[in-house]
């Protein structure tokens, strides 16, 4: 049976899910659960029945049902599946069921077109058989034409991936002239340097995005007999980066063309995706191109984003093995760095340090100074956990030095400002001001845009003890970021001030800050939620909270999602809020520090023990 709803189509026999004709990755049990829900839209399915039908006698807890329901809601929307307290779950979207012939296996999942065919009885008149034979032939022809159309459509769409590239750093520009391919159209922009674009991206990208929506910058270097390329792409929906190497610039360019031709790269740069959908897309892309190490690294990050640490470690191990087999020290170093981060999230500090040290050794072979700087930055936190401030300081100063050698201004300043924070955490008052002043001096020396300077008052606000003492510093941050209101320091400062003003009943000032930002994103939506919770009725609060949660899910802002979910759990039953779903969301996604910060509310809702 095939089911159609919204722009989705689901084959309950082959367990294949399509969206607008493109196959989506879906786990086996999730697909079986979806098939069960779609076959029973007329009734509520109990947890016991779901366990029996989907897991078929296997010993699993009810948590498995909650988790798979949550994943399906992430794919189709929270309102697709309704929870009935103490009864179970029911599908809510309108569904059309279509009986179809078996899938033709010679076609790929995303290109298959299914058309119902009526079987002919054995004793039917010959003319009916001829008629049916002609009908089947016609249908087969239509299937073939549809298949060709889909393939040609995809090819046409892929050629529309236009990339503007800036002159490559670290080498002669004529050695790296990119040529158009069947899938890629390149335009060279010589009026802007790669270094200037990266340090002024918050200001420059909005100015050029209409004509140049996807911008490629890169840095090339030759080490012994090999060429190494580090590249970055900026698009409307996010960023993408990778490293490649080869015997000649031409060989590296061919690898770059091959990688950028992967449809998932264009899609993730141009269209915002939720973390779960991003993971599904990268999983499918990795299956299609298992030797593309950049895709595999992105898949590790995707698993980290959804907190699936075991799967992230498995993919990081796979990346390390493949990189070693290909004698690719750059990717091997990155794989070891991923493993170090995963072990840190598991609170295995000593093992994490061992992996990071191994990562540094691998990255030294290719002289990848940027990646080494990042590993040293990560290692500084481990030394902080070990209460070894001198090692913290040494790691971050070394990180800043390597960044300076490769002329990576952003990394150098990040290392110095982070050292200021680490000094504050370790009660090193002289150092915390020393390195913050040093960072400010370098901002002036490099003649950076004003929004970079916002980090200075932002750090002074962190150093201040009382909210009233923090206020003027956060106000200064907003002055520096007038032209870049969505920069992270501006968002953090605005959030603190709105919360502070609401607590002090300074409602007009809070409302003024909220109305000063226009972009519809999770951060700004949550400001409206905070204001509504303080001064408006529940009927006005509910749509704002639901919108903020939706945006948080789409952008991967887990902390905002958790804050809004906690608020929705406190809404009265009469509001119609599915508190069971939001309680389960908290159970699955809450981190230990978030639980600590919200302990009183969680205890009041009897949610403190959930997920531990």
UniProtKB/TrEMBL annotation:
GO terms for biological process: phosphorelay signal transduction system; regulation of DNA-templated transcription. Keywords: DNA-binding. SUPFAM superfamilies: C-terminal effector domain of the bipartite response regulators (SSF46894), TPR-like (SSF48452). It holds the Pfam family Trans_reg_C. GO terms for molecular function: DNA binding. It comes from the Bacteria. InterPro entries: OmpR/PhoB-type_DNA-bd (IPR001867), Sig_transdc_resp-reg_C-effctor (IPR016032), TPR-like_helical_dom_sf (IPR011990), WH-like_DNA-bd_sf (IPR036388). The keyword Transferase does not apply. This is Transcriptional regulator. The lineage of its organism: Bacteria, Pseudomonadati, Pseudomonadota, Gammaproteobacteria, Alteromonadales.
């Amino acid at each position: 049976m095939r089911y159609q709803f919204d722009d989705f189509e689901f084959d309950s026999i082959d367990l294949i899910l399509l969206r607008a004709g493109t196959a989506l990755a879906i786990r086996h049990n999730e697909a079986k659960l979806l098939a069960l829900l779609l076959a029973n839209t007329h009734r509520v399915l109990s947890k016991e029945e779901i366990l029996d039908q989907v897991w078929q006698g296997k010993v699993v807890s009810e948590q498995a049902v909650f988790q798979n329901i949550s994943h399906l809601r992430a794919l189709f929307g929270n309102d697709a599946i309704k929870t009935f307290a103490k009864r179970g779950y029911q599908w809510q979207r309108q569904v059309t069921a279509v009986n179809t012939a078996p899938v033709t296996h010679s076609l790929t999942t995303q290109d298959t077109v299914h058309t119902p065919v009526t079987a002919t009885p054995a004793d039917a008149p010959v003319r009916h058989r001829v008629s049916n034979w002609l009908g089947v032939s016609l249908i087969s022809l239509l299937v073939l034409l549809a298949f060709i159309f889909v393939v040609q459509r995809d090819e046409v769409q892929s050629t529309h991936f236009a990339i503007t590239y800036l002159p490559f750093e670290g080498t002669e520009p004529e050695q790296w002239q990119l040529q158009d391919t069947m899938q890629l159209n390149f335009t060279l922009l010589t009026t802007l340097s790669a270094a200037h674009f990266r340090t002024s991206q918050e200001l420059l990208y909005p100015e050029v995005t209409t004509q140049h929506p996807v911008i490629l910058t890169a840095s090339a270097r030759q080490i012994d007999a090999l060429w190494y390329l580090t590249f970055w792409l900026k698009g409307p929906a996010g960023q993408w980066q990778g490293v490649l190497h080869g015997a000649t610039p031409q060989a590296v360019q061919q690898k770059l063309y091959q990688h950028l031709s992967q449809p998932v790269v264009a899609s993730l740069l141009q269209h915002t995706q939720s973390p779960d959908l991003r993971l599904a897309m990268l999983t499918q892309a990795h299956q299609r191109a298992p030797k593309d190490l950049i895709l595999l690294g992105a898949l590790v990050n995707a698993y980290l984003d959804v907190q699936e640490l075991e799967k992230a470690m498995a993919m990081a191990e796979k990346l390390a093995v493949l990189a070693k087999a290909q004698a690719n020290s750059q990717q091997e170093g990155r794989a070891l760095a991923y493993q170090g981060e995963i072990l840190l999230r598991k609170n295995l500090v000593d093992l994490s340090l061992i992996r990071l040290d191994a990562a540094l050794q691998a990255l030294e072979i290719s002289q990848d100074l940027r990646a080494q700087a990042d590993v040293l930055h990560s290692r500084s936190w481990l030394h902080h956990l070990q209460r070894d401030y001198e090692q913290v300081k040494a790691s971050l100063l070394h990180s800043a030095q390597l960044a300076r050698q490769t002329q990576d201004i952003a990394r150098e300043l990040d290392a110095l400002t982070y050292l200021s924070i680490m000094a504050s955490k370790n009660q090193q008052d002289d150092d915390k001001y020393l390195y913050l002043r040093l960072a400010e001096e370098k901002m002036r020396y490099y003649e950076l845009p004003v929004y970079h300077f916002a980090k200075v008052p932002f750090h002074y606000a962190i150093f201040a003890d009382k909210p009233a003492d923090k206020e003027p510093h956060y106000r200064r941050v907003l002055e520096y970021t007038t032209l870049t209101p969505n920069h992270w320091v501006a968002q953090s400062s605005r959030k603190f001030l709105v919360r502070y003003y609401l607590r002090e009943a300074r409602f007009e000032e809070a409302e003024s800050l909220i109305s000063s930002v226009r972009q519809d994103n999770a951060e700004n939506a949550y400001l409206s939620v905070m204001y509504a919770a303080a001064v408006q009725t529940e009927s006005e609060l509910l749509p704002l909270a639901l919108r903020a949660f939706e945006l948080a899910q789409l952008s991967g802002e887990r902390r905002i999602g958790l804050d809004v979910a906690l608020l929705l759990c406190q809404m009265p039953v009469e509001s119609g809020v599915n508190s069971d779903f939001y309680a389960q969301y908290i159970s699955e996604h809450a981190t230990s520090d978030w639980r600590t910060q919200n302990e009183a509310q969680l205890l009041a809702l009897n949610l403190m023990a959930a997920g531990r």
